[in-house]
Amino acid sequence: MPELVQVATTPDPFAPYRISQAIRVGDLVFVSGQAALDLDGSLVGGDDFRAQAEQAFTMLGRVLEAAGSGLDRVAKVTIYLTDMRHFPTIVELRGKYFSQPYPADTIVQVAALALPQLQVEIDAIAAVRG
């Protein structure tokens, strides 16, 4: 049986909430939802959706790197939006942060995220490098 290994950045903004930023199981990494928070857990981007989305993708990349993976190794993402009007921006940013073959993706609108000011959250499953 593969061992479950917790993955975290330093500092780990998820620690106070008893959430792992990611769990590595064998050659797969399961990343918890990343949002517009910095490593100290502070909001990035204010009311600016694009800035929030850029930060969510940046944090996703940081957690993946900490796990021995990267954005180029993502197989599946789920993107949660509080307003589907931002869908075109997400499609544009997918082209910036992912490359072909693009990951499988589900994009859904939700009523709210963990903090009321958050507009986007991204979770992922990725393969470990090498």
Helix/strand layout:
Blueprint: E1 4-7, E2 22-25, E3 28-34, H1 49-66, E4 74-81, H2 87-97, E5 104-109, E6 120-127
Parallel strand pairs: 4-5
Antiparallel strand pairs: 1-2, 2-3, 3-6, 4-6
Summarize the structure.
The protein is α+β, with helices and mostly antiparallel strands and 130 residues long.
Report on this model:
With 130 residues, the chain is of the alpha+beta class. The two termini are 20 Å apart. Helix 2 links the parallel strand 4 (74-81) and strand 5 (104-109). It has a single domain (4-127), classed as RutC-like (60s Ribosomal Protein L30, Chain: A), CATH 3.30.1330.40. The mean pLDDT is 97. It has a six-stranded mixed sheet. The protein is built from two helices and six strands; from the N terminus they run E-E-E-H-E-H-E-E.
Features:
130 residues; 6-stranded mixed beta sheet; 60s Ribosomal Protein L30, Chain: A; globular; 28% strand; alpha+beta; 22% helix; 2 helices
